[in-house]
Amino acid sequence: MQKCHYCFELAGDLSELNTLCWHLDECGNKLELPQRCRIELNLSLDELFTNIISYGFEDASEHQIRFSLSKVGDTLVVEVEDDGMPFNPLDAAAPEADRDLEAINIGGLGIHLMKKMVDDIDYQRVAGKNKLTLRKCVAAA
């Protein structure tokens, strides 16, 4: 089975959002991802990247966020690694769907969106780093 791979690192700064989008477009081309998969990947990783930067770092030091994307058969595997505070998005509570939009607490919607757009998520804390692995069947996208 052929495996294609695409890796990049970004500084932990919101000014890198455009660079993230550029890399995801390049990756989508290289891995020949369907358009719907590209859109969902972009939304998911934009939310994840923004959350890591907004909530993950307690200091003003320079931080790097590493992305690794590979396609094995019909499965896209995305690994995101950062040295921020420990945070397992799988533990985040789902938003309260039965309440009015104005009454829903701020936060958690991006994580919920990410969970809905991928087929599987795995979190590990290894050697002081958060490692999040997302899997998505691109044939279904």
Task: Give a structural overview.
The chain is of the alpha+beta class and 141 residues long. It has a single domain (3-137), classed as Heat Shock Protein 90 (2-Layer Sandwich). Helices cover 31% and strands 30% of the residues. The chain contains three helices and five strands. α1 runs antiparallel to α2 (35-55) and α2 packs antiparallel against α3. The longest helix is centred in the first third of the chain and has 21 residues, at 35-55. The mean pLDDT is 87.
Briefly summarize what is shown.
This protein is α+β, with helices and mostly antiparallel strands.
The largest sheet has its strands arranged as 1-2-3-5-4
Mean pLDDT: 87
Largest sheet: 5 strands, antiparallel
CATH class: Alpha Beta
Specify the number of helices: 3
CATH architecture: 2-Layer Sandwich
**What count of domains describes the coordinates?**
1
H/E element order: EHHEEHEE
CATH superfamily: Histidine kinase-like ATPase, C-terminal domain
Distance between the termini: 20 Å
- Strand residue percentage: 25-35%
CATH topology: Heat Shock Protein 90
**Shape descriptor:** globular
Please report the total strand number as a whole number: 5
State the helical fraction: 25-40%
